[in-house]
Write a structure and sequence with these properties.
Layout lengths: L1 H13 L11 E5 L3 E5 L13 E5 H6 L9 H14 L14 H6 L4 E5 L2 H7 L4 H9 L3 E4 L6 H18 L5 E4 L3 E6 L2 H16 L18 H9 L6 E5 L2 H6 L15 H7 L4 E3 L9 H11 L6 E4 L3 E6 L2 H21 L10 H9 L1 H16 L2
Parallel strand pairs: 5-6, 9-10
Antiparallel strand pairs: 1-2, 1-4, 2-3, 4-7, 6-7, 8-11, 10-11
């Protein structure tokens, strides 16, 4: 049964941190009438068949016949309502992935969407589009940075139609700038073969790997700084990390630039869009709480990542799992930044795209589900 194959395929990629971290990514299988899509807030690593949402493909197709409001919030709410209405009977308690429309559009039975750091070293780089064309030719379609959801689906729909008219073929690879990759095929082994080709091609182009050796979780003045950070906002847990790559990044504010903003929506959801960099702290420990408070208050929002010059990086969360996840995604951003060196350097999301994610109901839902899971694990 194909839903069982989809479950196995989803776990295969979901359990591999090279492809999926913090529950990111989504998968699907479709036949003529039904799309089986990963439910939002469900982890691929241990997904069960009931973790997929059965969607009526005819109802999803009717979404493209409608005209939606121009206002972004109104549009996304209306599209979400119609997408929820496309759930088949018995699925009313499940929430389909935000990428449901895009999965339904792709003209293949299986779709696996992931955010590998290696791939995002390409998609989040200044020379990514040209490099993608050289590496994958007409096998891939490059989509410029676009707000996820309905707008992204419509952009991909138009790009696929243009590609098919030009080449007479459907592209099995969709590379999304500042996002990740969609791989599609009509059988599981072809999905795996395409992913192997992508990853092998990129490995041959990478100039260096991030050096995470000598990792420590306690160093010097980290404890007093962690205590001062924990007293700000709603933070309950602050974790510290230092390694060779981080040491180079926190040398000064200029050195920190390659990780100073957001690469992808997942980085925003779990590690925040704008890490805070604090210059060298005073020798007087009594001044530290005041300095931390002033820095946090000057920030646009309570940061999830705080870097301290010549010391290291702190992850901040409502619990240990959330703080650890912030550090995990920040370390993923470091990998992406290092990989971009092979393709002209980093290219962050633009501020309007960052603002969209920070204000988008769908990503607030993902954040809430993640927070509730963290609190429930205590």
């Amino acid at each position: 049964m194909s839903i069982d194959e989809l479950t196995t395929l989803s776990r295969y990629y979901g359990a591999d941190p090279e492809y999926v971290i913090a529950g990111g990514g989504n998968t699907s299988f479709k036949d003529a009438s039904t799309l089986y899509i990963k439910g939002s807030g469900t982890a691929l690593a241990d997904i069960q068949p009931q973790g997929f949402v059965r969607m009526d493909r005819q109802a999803l197709g009717r979404i493209w016949e409608k005209t939606y409001p121009v206002d972004a919030d109104e549009r996304e709410q209306a599209v979400l309502a119609d997408m929820m209405g496309a759930r088949k009977p018995g699925e009313e308690q499940k929430r389909p992935s935000v990428e449901t429309l895009l999965h339904d559009l792709l003209p293949f039975a299986y779709v696996v969407h992931t955010h590998p750091a290696l791939v995002n070293g390409l998609t989040c780089s200044r020379q990514g589009e040209g490099a993608a064309k050289a590496l994958f030719g007409d096998e891939a379609i490059w989509i410029e940075s676009t707000n996820p959801g309905y707008i992204l689906s419509g952009t991909v729909k138009a790009a696929m139609e243009a590609h098919s008219m030009r080449t007479g073929k459907n592209a099995p690879i969709i590379l999304l700038q500042n996002h990740g990759v969609f791989v599609s095929a009509d059988d599981v082994e072809s999905i795996k073969a395409i992913y192997r080709r992508i990853m092998d091609a990129l490995r041959q182009k990478i100039k260096r790997q991030a050096d995470f050796s000598d990792t420590v979780t306690s160093k010097g003045r980290s404890q007093e700084i962690a205590l001062a950070l924990a007293q700000q906002g709603q933070a309950t847990t602050v974790l510290f990390r230092w390694n060779r790559e981080i040491a180079a990044l926190v040398k000064d504010q200029a050195a920190f630039y390659p990780v100073s903003s957001a690469f992808t929506p997942d980085h925003i959801v779990y590690a925040g869009s704008d890490p805070l960099f604090i210059k060298t702290l005073p020798d007087d420990p009594e001044r530290i709480p005041t300095l931390i408070q002033e820095a946090v208050q000057a920030h646009t929002r309570m940061p999830k990542i705080v870097a301290v010059q010549e010391l290291g990086v702190f992850g901040i969360g409502t619990g240990e799992q959330a703080a650890a996840r912030a550090l995990e995604l920040f370390q993923d951003a470091i990998k992406v930044a290092v990989y971009t060196e092979s393709f002209g350097g980093p290219e962050f999301m633009t501020q309007d795209k960052i603002d969209f994610i920070n204000n988008w109901e769908v990503e607030r839902y993902r954040t809430r589900v993640s927070t509730e899971a963290d609190q429930g694990s205590k």
